[in-house]
C-alpha cells in the first residue's frame, strides 16, 4: 500500500459528526466515528474482534458501541467493557482507537503510531484565524483515482490553461513560465500572468472587465494537503508579488484523503479577503468551483483507468513535472522510513564503518 500513515488526514467537517455512528474508510482501513457525551469525536476500528462484524452496524449505548452480532461492547478508547454471558474480558477483546484533532471546523485523524500524533504536525494556515478573511467549508469531491495523482494535480499550474479554459484558466497563460521551489518542506509552484484578460472565475466573482494581473501559487504539504493561493488585480496597479492582499485573493484548500488505492476524497474549502459574511457570494463561488473540480475529476479518472491497462512504453516526463516528481520521491521516502524502526546510532557496535 502506498500510504504514509504517520500523518493527520481530514475525515470531514465538524458538522459531519454527531451522535450517530458514522462509518468511513481512510487508507483502506474501515473506521467508525461518533461524538461522545462531552462533545469529543471518538474514532475506532470498525470491526468487532469476535466475528468481524463492522461495529457501525451495531448500536450506541451511552458512549459505548454494542456489536450488532453478539453484543460485545466497546468504549470510546477501544477497550471492551462487556462480553454478554461471561464476566472475564479477554486481553485480545479490543479495537484500535485513533487520535482525533478538531480545529477550524475540520476533523483530522492520525492514522499511524498513536504516540507520534503531534497536533503541531497538523495542517494550519495563519489566515484561518485572522480577521479580514471569510472561511467557507465547501464540499467533498469523490474521485475514482489514486490519491497521488490527485495531489500532484494540485501542485501543477500548467494544467489550468487546458483543463479549465472557461473557469480557472485561459489561453493567456499557456506559455508563461512556471516557477518551482522544492528545497523546503512545502513544495511550491507558481506563476504570474500580467496584463491579460481575466479568467471566467474573476469575471463572475471579482467583477473585472479590463485586463488584470493574476497569480497562481500552489503549495503542497506532505502527505496530501494542497493550498492554492490565486487572485487578480487591475493591471494598471502593477501589483507587486508580496502585496497580493490588495487584490481579490482566495485560498482554495484541498485536503486529499486516500480512501483506497483506487478511490480518493478531496475535501475542499476556501478563504477569501472580499465579500466577508456574504453567504450568496459563497454559494456563487461553490457553484464555480464545482464546475472546475468536475473538470479535474474527469481527467484524473480517465488517467487512472489508463494506468490500469498494459503499457507498451514508459510514460514520458517533461519540464513542468518537476514539482510532481519531487512529491512522488518524498512520498516513497516516507513510506520506506515507516517500514522499519530506526534504533538510532549504535552503542558499542561490533562493526566499524569506513565510508
UniProtKB/TrEMBL annotation:
Check the record and name the InterPro entries matching this protein. Answer: Cholesterol_7-desaturase, Rieske_2Fe-2S, Rieske_2Fe-2S_sf, VanA_C_cat
Q: Keywords of this protein's UniProt record, alphabetized?
A: 2Fe-2S, Iron, Iron-sulfur, Metal-binding, Monooxygenase, Oxidoreductase, Plasmid
EC number(s) from the headed UniProt entry: 1.14.14.-
Domain Rieske as annotated: residue spans: 8-109
What top-tier enzyme class does this entry carry?
oxidoreductase
Keyword Metal-binding in record: yes
Matching Gene3D superfamilies = Naphthalene 1,2-dioxygenase Alpha Subunit, Chain A, domain 1, Rieske [2Fe-2S] iron-sulphur domain
PROSITE patterns in the cross-refs: RIESKE
Q: Does the keyword Iron apply?
A: yes
Q: Name one GO molecular function term.
A: metal ion binding
Q: What is this protein called?
A: Toluene-4-sulfonate monooxygenase system iron-sulfur subunit TsaM1
Q: What is the lineage of its organism?
A: Bacteria, Pseudomonadati, Pseudomonadota, Alphaproteobacteria, Rhodobacterales
- What gene name is given for the protein in this entry? tsaM1
Amino acid at each position: 500500500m502506498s500510504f504514509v500513515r504517520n500523518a493527520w488526514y481530514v475525515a470531514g467537517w465538524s458538522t459531519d459528526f454527531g451522535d450517530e455512528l458514522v462509518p468511513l474508510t481512510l487508507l483502506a482501513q474501515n473506521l467508525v466515528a461518533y461524538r461522545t457525551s462531552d462533545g469529543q469525536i471518538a474514532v475506532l476500528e470498525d470491526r468487532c474482534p469476535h466475528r468481524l462484524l463492522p461495529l457501525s452496524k451495531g448500536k450506541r449505548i451511552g458512549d459505548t458501541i454494542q456489536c450488532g452480532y453478539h453484543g460485545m461492547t466497546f468504549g470510546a478508547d477501544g477497550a471492551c467493557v462487556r462480553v454478554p454471558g461471561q464476566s472475564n474480558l479477554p486481553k485480545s477483546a479490543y479495537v484500535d482507537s485513533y487520535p482525533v484533532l478538531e480545529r477550524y471546523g475540520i476533523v483530522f485523524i492520525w492514522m499511524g503510531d498513536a504516540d507520534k500524533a503531534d497536533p503541531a504536525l497538523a495542517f494550519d494556515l495563519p489566515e484561518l484565524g485572522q480577521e479580514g478573511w471569510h472561511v467557507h467549508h465547501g464540499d467533498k469531491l469523490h474521485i475514482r483515482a489514486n490519491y497521488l495523482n490527485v495531489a500532484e494535480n494540485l501542485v501543477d499550474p500548467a494544467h489550468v490553461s487546458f483543463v479549465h479554459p472557461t473557469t480557472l484558466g485561459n489561453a493567456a497563460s499557456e506559455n508563461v513560465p512556471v516557477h518551482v521551489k522544492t528545497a523546503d518542506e512545502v513544495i511550491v509552484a507558481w506563476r504570474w500572468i500580467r496584463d491579460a484578460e481575466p479568467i471566467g472565475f474573476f469575471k463572475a466573482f471579482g467583477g473585472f472587465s479590463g485586463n488584470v494581473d493574476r497569480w497562481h501559487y500552489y503549495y503542497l504539504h506532505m502527505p496530501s494537503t494542497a493550498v492554492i493561493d490565486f487572485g487578480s488585480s487591475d493591471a494598471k496597479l502593477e501589483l507587486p508579488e508580496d502585496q497580493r492582499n490588495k487584490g481579490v485573493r482566495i485560498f482554495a484548500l484541498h485536503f486529499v484523503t486516500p480512501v483506497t488505492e483506487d478511490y480518493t476524497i478531496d475535501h475542499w474549502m476556501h478563504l477569501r479577503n472580499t465579500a466577508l459574511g456574504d453567504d450568496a457570494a459563497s454559494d456563487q463561488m461553490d457553484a464555480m468551483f464545482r464546475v472546475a473540480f468536475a473538470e479535474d475529476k474527469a481527467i484524473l479518472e480517465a488517467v487512472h483507468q489508463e494506468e490500469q491497462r498494459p503499457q507498451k512504453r514508459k510514460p514520458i516526463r517533461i519540464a513542468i513535472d518537476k514539482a510532481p516528481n519531487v512529491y512522488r520521491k518524498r512520498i516513497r521516502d516516507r513510506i520506506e522510513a515507516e517500514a522499519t524502526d530506526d534504533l538510532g546510532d549504535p552503542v558499542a557496535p561490533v562493526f566499524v564503518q569506513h565510508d
